[in-house]
Design goal:
about 190 residues; Arc Repressor Mutant, subunit A; two-stranded antiparallel sheet; about 20% strand; single chain; alpha+beta; Alpha-Beta Plaits; 4-stranded antiparallel beta sheet
């Protein structure tokens, strides 16, 4: 059988794995850079300390972490922290946090993902009422949490899962939080 080899199969699997790791690494390093803008010393910046800890758990190389902190400290990193609001299938409220160096690009990518998967962009403040900013359950800091979890119809649950997956594929999106009853625990 020409064209089939053990190495070719390994190479394709490794390529897929490396792409996934690269995407995770870039999100974690963006979070580190955003946290390091105010104080580059993790001993005095709990947010940075948490971001570094998460990066280490994901096996991000130490030199990459140090480079992200140094870049943020020297240049003030042109990264901007964004919070987007939307409604998903079944009227489920969505809150997306992102870190981006180009706000316009990120907004367009999120809007496109919403449009393709049945979501609807919402103006600032129209969804936030359904969420609260509180200490995270794992003790790693402060995070958004649904105030009023809402039940999801079974047919809307599959559409919502596809929408969340599409939004998480956007490079700059760090987290997608919903007020869906069963998804409220899973996505955080």
């Amino acid at each position: 059988m020409s064209g089939h080899s053990h190495w070719a199969g390994i190479k394709h699997k490794k390529e897929i794995t490396d792409q996934k790791r690269g995407k995770i690494f870039s999100k974690l390093l963006a979070a580190i850079s955003a946290a390091a803008k105010t104080e580059p010393n993790p001993d005095f910046n709990p947010r940075l300390r948490t971001a570094v800890q998460k990066a280490r758990e994901a096996s991000v190389p130490q030199e990459n972490i140090e480079r992200a902190i140094k870049r943020a400290a020297e240049t003030g990193a042109a990264l901007e922290e964004l919070v987007f609001e939307a409604y998903g299938p079944g009227g489920i409220a969505l809150l997306m946090t992102a870190i981006s160096d180009n706000r316009n690009r990120t907004v367009q990518e999120v809007k496109l993902a919403l449009k393709e998967r049945g979501g609807k962009w919402a103006e600032e403040g129209s969804v936030r009422w359904a969420f609260e900013f509180a200490p995270s359950e794992d003790g790693s800091g402060i995070a958004w949490r649904a105030k009023f979890p809402q039940d999801v119809a079974p047919d809307d649950a599959a559409k919502l899962a596809a929408l969340i997956e599409a939004l998480e594929e956007v490079n700059d999106v760090q987290a997608v939080i919903t007020n869906a009853a069963e998804a409220a625990e899973e996505t955080q």
